[in-house]
Amino acid sequence: MGLWSQLLLQNLGINPANIGFSTLTMESDKFICIREKAGEQAQVTIIDMSDPMAPIRRPISAESAIMNPASKVIALKGKPDGIVRKESYLTFTAVLP
User: Fold this and answer.
1) CB 46 within 8 Å of CB 31
2) Closest Cα to residue 32, out of 66, 6, 58?
3) Cβ(60)–Cβ(21) below 8 Å
4) Are 69 and 30 spatial neighbours (Cβ–Cβ below 8 Å)?
5) Which of 17, 19, 34, 68 has minimal Cβ neighbours within 10 Å of its Cβ?
6) What is this structure's pTM?
7) pLDDT exceeds 70 at position 24
8) Coiled coil: which residue ranges (predicted)?
9) What is the pLDDT of residues 32-80, one digit of tens each?
10) CA distance 68 to 78
11) Which of 70, 77, 72, 65 has its CA nearest to residue 28?
12) DSSP assignment letter at 39
């Protein structure tokens, strides 16, 4: 069994501060999702490991995000802007056709 580096997320423009268990999720060997900020704008960056040099960035604010490994659908957990509640909600959004 060996361990090797597939890619460096910093080379894709990911801030090293956003590389951790609280901001990054991996779904098997297919997708990586990173929640980050671009300036003041929250965004989710999706890396499809079949084409890792073409990350997909979407202006999405979420508490957590993970990709479906079988299709390009993202699961998001969060609260809508302007809503003041303790509980969160879960929504699914298609990322690509």
Assistant:
1) yes
2) 66
3) no
4) yes
5) 17
6) 0.79
7) yes
8) none
9) 999 998 888 999 999 999 999 999 999 888 888 989 888 888 888 877 6
10) 17
11) 70
12) T
